[in-house]
Amino acid sequence: MIRAYFFILLLIFFISLSNVCYSQALVNPINVSIQVDGATRFQQINGFGVNANTRAWEGKELEPALNLMIDSANATIWRVIVETVYNWEDKNDNNDPFTFNWDYYNHLYETPKYQKAWDMIDFLNSRGITKNLMINFMGPVPLWMGGKLVKEKYEDEYIEMLVSFFYYARKVKHLQIGLISIMNEPDIENEGPTVDAKQYVKLQRKFIDRMDSLGLGDIHYVAPDVAGMGNGLNSYVPELMKDSVVMSKMAHIGLHSYAGYYANVDSALKHSPYPQTDYWMTEWNNWCNGCDDGMLGEYNYNFAAKSIGFLFEFLQHGATAGIIWEGYDSYYEHHAPSPFSYWGILAYDTATRSYTPRKNFYAFQQVSKFVLPGSWRVAVSNQSDSLTILAFYNETSKKLSMVGINKSHHPVNLNGTLNNLPVVTGFETYITSNTENVHHVADIKVKGKSFKTLIPADCIFTFTSP
């Protein structure tokens, strides 16, 4: 009995101590001072966007989700997914890869799989998504071409199949497509055909030449869309840069990461034969265990904050765009037998057949809504280990926006100085936390070049000038 009483007293002591520590954290904020310097510029931002699966198009059902991502999240870059697994050129259209059998393709491209693609692209075009609408093909190729690889003897047939899609889209459906990524993650299995760097560049060159010959030379490319950033830098990108024709058509280097910035991309590109080449993160997120395999993930604030923390890493190291994986839950043939993919920043409810935002939608919105295309990342100095802040200035709108994460359990007293920037009179402030979603809190007044504010503990925040 005495032991039990002693244990209870000890437990009360530790609970009281933890409450005191927590209270002290609330009343003892960390003091941080920063300087924002508009004279020191880094990369110009092309925009932010989402990966979007055409298979999910079901008439008007998907439109509210697409509208939400365009209107609320300002998603200006769309990587539109078309799978190559089934119901494409399952049988050869003819024995001449340089002559389209249009009786075959005309029938093929009016089947439901492709009608979904045309309708979704048309809808996005109607919302102004054109030059930054990118088509990416995912999954293995028809079995006779090689299945999980592209047999060398069928390379031209493979190219003919891909090119026929774009010719039909442009000439028959009159759709606007600005960018193409010819395959997905060629450095691993099943996400696309597995091809090494030399074959990848050979296929890319064949594709470019064929498109040019058909009057489709205005479309540009994003490559190599590899799963491993290191694979891209060490193998695929150097091989791409050996072909001047390929590089003349290259809009952006495309890379993927679900573990943050772990390869020296920025420096490698700046010291390459094409130092003006920029890179997009065409797939990025925090890794979600089971989400590819039909299992729901953890969609809490911690997951969302880690995901956006990765985006900040990419932006700090020169990325000009971030395309999150993925826009909404959907089904992928090349992930079979998985019943569904649950990576979406919008969750799909099968009962109501509707889409609703998850926490990482709001986290993404903290950046995408306020950092406008064309903005320049400018210098921010004297940050702390637990506080990350990035600043962006847009010359057209004259807006200065700062986005950041407070990783500490303490609030932060932030003192800021604005140098070499046009006059800023104040900032609107928005936060996303465990309990808030892009919540507009008290505005910040700027006096001269200085401002002060209190940043709550454990939150993603945005300051944006009116």
TrEMBL record:
Q: What lineage is on file?
A: Bacteria, Pseudomonadati, Bacteroidota, Chitinophagia, Chitinophagales
Q: Which family does it belong to?
A: Belongs to the glycosyl hydrolase 30 family.
Source organism per entry reads Ilyomonas limi
GO terms (BP aspect): sphingolipid metabolic process
Protein name (Swiss-Prot/TrEMBL): Glycosyl hydrolase family 30 beta sandwich domain-containing protein
InterPro entries annotated for this entry? GH (IPR017853), Glyco_hydro_30 (IPR001139), Glyco_hydro_b (IPR013780)
Give the domain of life. Answer: Bacteria
Q: State the Gene Ontology terms under molecular function.
A: glucosylceramidase activity
Q: Which GO terms describe its cellular component?
A: membrane
